[in-house]
Design a protein that fits this description.
The chain has 454 residues and is α/β, with parallel strands linked by helices. It contains 19 helices and 15 strands. 43% of the residues lie in helices and 14% in strands. Bound molecules: pyridoxal-5'-phosphate.
């Protein structure tokens, strides 16, 4: 590698011409988010885990492989085409829908609106829905649209899914974390205090990101009363709530709570959806619901989802028509409700969660928690739980665990926004069979027993 050894203003020229006449760059010339090692933590984690393929992996939240069936892809694609024929669309329109550039906000909003009504009791007019390239693009589009000045800050639950901090960082949006207060996740009063503290600093909290149902990484669920209070705080503090809900379908029977969006009577919520866990992540399909009216200088009003279309057009032009057709076919085939369709899958995840909890209790009986220095939360669903350990759990320890003990996991500190979580690990169990979970927890118990406290 020829890296030009030039500094300062000279460096600008060297961007195009290195000493040998070939283009050669320095990392520090790139956007700070690309230089920041924190932004690379998930890649490092999965690369480390992948270097030890024999290790049982609790390090990811990948959905259950057994739910993926090649034949279902073409079946659901065909099902969507049949649906369009049944609606009376001429063949050339159907062909155009699948092959041509399409509307930026997508073409399955009607089907998604029906699903939202049936599964979540959310009343979302199709015009308030944008079909996106996964949750990740929905987050990028919403953030790009909502934030317009450097004093505007994104509040986020902490610890948080890396996708939100990364999206904000890529857009130069400052982020402030609000620590979860325990098994009930975010405390509404702390949200109010954080919004006010920012105001006292001359800044403005524009939006708050949170995952009310089975948060990643902590597995917490916000209780119903706190959801209502959060909505009240959002209305009073003029905050948009960015509600991310990939795991809500995986609750135990009778334990489903209403989403913030379904309780939202003041239009404070933008709902960020994903088909990664309810269908499959390879579709890279998600959506956002933004039903807030936006009025322009001429007095014309359009829904926020329509305004945000301008951002989506520049990120991705439109979402894949093939993925939309396959997901559309899944929705049509299941009568626009994924709840019953995912009950068996939910049972798989719940059995895995119960197996982890059982295995942990077997290796670390309650009366010896103090002696072992180990404790954990007991989520009621989702893909993750948090294990507290008596030593600093960083990537180097994870590597030793994977190499020498055959079990990998994720350091919780990677998910904290303001530092913290140094002696905690995230256990993701969604893609490990029960026997593998039992063996994995046995290996983890040996690793914990052998690791000196610090
Ligand atoms: C909290 C959270 N949001 C969203 C997603 C899914 O994002 P995407 O649709 O971009 O795959 C995940 C997946 O891990 C997640 O944990």
């Amino acid at each position: 590698m020829n890296t030009p050894a030039v500094q300062g203003t000279e460096a600008r020229t060297a961007r195009i011409t290195g000493e040998d006449g070939l283009v050669s760059l320095r990392q520090e010339w790139l956007h700070p988010a690309i230089v920041d090692p924190e932004m690379d933590s998930m890649r490092l984690l999965s690369e480390t885990a992948m270097r030890f393929p024999e290790a049982l992996s609790f390090s990811s939240g990948a959905p259950y492989d057994g739910n993926h069936d090649l034949a279902a892809l073409s079946f659901h694609l065909e099902r969507y085409v049949k649906h369009l024929r049944e609606k009376g669309l001429p063949e050339e329109r159907i062909t155009r829908t699948l092959f041509q550039y399409g509307p930026v906000n997508g073409f399955i909003q009607d089907e998604v609106a029906l699903m939202l009504k049936r599964d979540e009791d959310i009343d979302a007019p199709p015009g308030s829905i944008m079909i996106t390239h996964g949750y990740q693009e929905a987050a990028l589009v919403a953030l790009r649209g909502l934030f317009s000045s450097p004093d505007e800050v994104l509040l986020t639950v902490s610890p948080a899914y890396v996708g939100i901090r990364g999206a904000a960082r890529m857009l130069d949006i400052p982020v402030r974390g609000i620590l979860e207060s325990g098994p009930d996740g975010l405390d509404p009063e702390t949200v109010r205090e954080s919004a006010r503290a920012l105001r006292a600093e001359g800044k403005r909290a524009v939006a708050l990101y949170l995952v009310p149902d089975f948060s990643n990484p902590s597995g917490t669920v916000i209780p119903l009363e706190a959801r209502r209070r959060l909505l009240q705080v959002a209305a009073e503090e003029e905050l948009i709530l960015l509600e991310d809900n990939p795991y809500g379908l995986f609750a135990r029977d009778g334990e489903t709570l209403p989403t913030l969006k379904s309780l939202d009577t003041t239009r404070n919520v933008i709902y960020l959806g994903s088909f990664a866990k309810s269908a499959f992540p390879g579709a890279r399909l998600g959506y956002l619901v933004a039903d807030q009216p936006v009025t322009d200088a001429e007095g014309t009003t359009r829904l926020l989802a329509q305004e945000l279309s301008k951002a989506k057009a520049m990120y991705s032009v439109g979402s894949s028509s093939l993925s939309q057709a396959v997901i559309g076919g899944i929705l049509v085939e299941n009568d626009y409700t994924l709840r019953p369709a995912t009950r068996e899958l939910a049972a798989v995840y719940l059995e895995r969660l119960d197996t982890v909890l059982d295995a942990l209790a077997g290796h670390f009986p309650a009366e010896r928690h103090e002696e072992h220095g180990v404790s954990w939360n007991e989520p009621r669903g989702g893909f993750f739980l948090t294990l507290r350990v008596p030593f600093t759990a960083d990537l180097a320890k994870m590597e030793r665990s994977a190499r020498d003990y055959g079990v990998s996991w994720a350091p919780m500190s990677m998910f904290h926004i303001e530092g913290g979580g140094y002696r905690e690990i995230r256990l993701g169990f969604s893609n490990l069979a029960p026997e593998a979970i039992r063996e994995g927890i046995a290996r983890l118990a040996r690793f914990i027993a052998d690791t000196p406290r610090d």
